[in-house]
Design brief:
By secondary structure, this protein is α/β, with parallel strands linked by helices. It contains 15 helices and six strands.
Length: about 300
């Protein structure tokens, strides 16, 4: 069984992609592709792969998890599946971990090495969506605040903006953790609203878009965010409409510049570690990466407006 992992990242329209997979699950199964989304993976299936609180029973939880996965995969194969696509952003770590670490997926290498062992080295492809860090962190912070977390302090924002860890480091860690897997990188700015293209590039299957292109888990705009928060918290938000932008202009520019460096590295071959997937519709107007993808420090406002509702 060839196994493909779609690991996120968070806030990169992954919920939209998962909704697309669920919508077409029956058709995909006819083509020999089984789908596991969060509904399948977060019900105890992966329990024991990562260390954590557990009753003292003397049992090797990692070994039990490996056996559990073997049985589930064997069941999929018996039902006719030749390939398995697993989509879950928490494979990389949780959103709360990101906020606590104030950097991009610090533990991703160790986490994915454990998953690689649990799958007996059968993972053949890893699909990674990445996003300009200024928009990635803004979307993540907006979601966290909307869910009851306090507004980030200036110190927290400064630490996030100043941390040198970039997507290049994340990709390098993934490559070390899963040396037998091909890493396929699909930037959110190009592919976020095109799940059918992502699936085609990953699995070679091109399906129609869903009838409704609603975004899942989209970020709240300022008016909605104010309405959801307690008055004493909402008054600390800036006035006006549109999206909340917690970072200063200087911080946002630094984060965009880091992203431009990452994309240039990917365009140059990523030291053989990963492949930046080429847009099959690259001649279509408005679907190419924005100018800052290959130009250091330029603005991303036009592309953000195109995908502003995607998370």
């Amino acid at each position: 069984m060839d196994i493909m992992l779609h690991i996120g990242a968070h806030r990169c329209a992954t919920g939209y992609f998962q909704g697309f997979l669920a919508h077409h699950a029956a058709r995909l199964r006819q083509d020999g592709l089984a789908i596991w989304g969060p509904e399948q993976t977060r019900n105890g299936l992966f329990h024991g792969i990562q260390p954590g609180p557990a009753p003292v029973t003397g049992r090797d939880l990692a070994t039990r998890a490996r056996g559990r996965l073997r049985l589930r995969i064997a069941t999929e194969a018996a039902s006719g599946a030749q390939r398995l696509l697993i989509s879950d952003t928490d494979l990389m770590g949780g959103a709360h971990d990101l906020l606590q670490q104030r950097q991009l997926y610090a533990g991703v290498g160790v986490r994915l090495a454990r998953f690689d062992a649990a799958f007996d080295g059968q993972v053949r492809d890893v699909m990674l969506n990445l996003r300009s860090p200024d928009r990635f962190w803004t979307s993540l912070l907006t979601q966290m605040v909307a869910n009851g977390h306090p507004l980030p302090s200036a110190a927290v924002l400064g630490q996030i903006a100043a941390h040198p860890r970039s997507w290049r480091d994340v990709i390098t860690d993934i490559a070390c953790a899963m040396p037998n897997a091909r890493i396929r990188v699909m930037p959110y700015e190009t592919y976020g609203d095109r799940p059918e293209v992502q699936l085609s590039l990953l699995a070679g299957l091109r399906l129609a878009r869903m009838p409704r292109a609603d975004r899942l888990n989209r970020s709240d705009g300022l008016p909605t965010l104010r309405h959801r928060l307690a008055p004493d918290v909402a008054r600390d938000l800036p006035r006006g409409e549109g999206r909340w932008s917690p970072f200063s202009d200087i911080q946002s520019a630094a984060l965009r510049e880091r992203y431009a460096d990452d994309l240039m590295w990917l365009q140059g071959g990523a030291d053989g570690l990963a492949e930046l997937m080429r847009d099959p519709d690259k001649h279509a107007v408005g679907l190419n990466p924005p100018p800052y993808d290959l130009t250091r420090g330029t603005s991303d406002e036009d592309q953000n407006r195109r995908l502003a509702g995607s998370g």
